[in-house]
Specification:
The protein has three helices and four strands. With 118 residues, it is an alpha+beta fold. α2 runs parallel beside α3. The protein is globular.
Length: 118
């Protein structure tokens, strides 16, 4: 069925599909991690819009996204934006194909500490 995709891409799609089935109508917090940066978006899948986002590529975080401390800073800023948007109680975390470890875990815990219920 999905033989043309890599195993990582298949895992991403399977994880995302399972999350969408278990959390209908909720806002998805989707994370992207590269070697140098980390990004997160709040996505409304019903409307197909990004509500808010935060990234270590922003001017405030220049050069701070490659480690756990940088991920915590991005998570705290994102949590503030989510609370301001009024969607703090209606979210779920989509880690994609990334393990819940290191920067991804630090990002998620910083978002929880900022008042977002995941």
């Amino acid at each position: 069925m999905l033989k043309h995709l890599s195993s990582e891409e298949r895992r991403t799609l399977a994880n995302r599909g399972a999350l969408k089935r278990k959390n209908p109508g909720k806002i998805r917090l989707s994370v992207f991690r590269s070697d140098r940066h980390i990004e997160i978006q709040a996505i409304d899948d019903v409307r197909g819009h990004t509500i808010c986002a935060a990234s270590s590529k922003e001017k405030d975080f220049q050069g701070k996204g490659w480690n756990i401390a940088g991920a915590e800073l991005v998570g705290a800023a994102f949590a503030k934006r989510v609370v301001d948007a009024g969607i703090a109680e209606n979210c779920y975390f989509d880690r994609g194909a990334y393990r819940y470890h290191g920067r991804v875990k630090a990002l998620c815990e910083a978002i929880r500490a900022g008042g977002v219920r995941i």
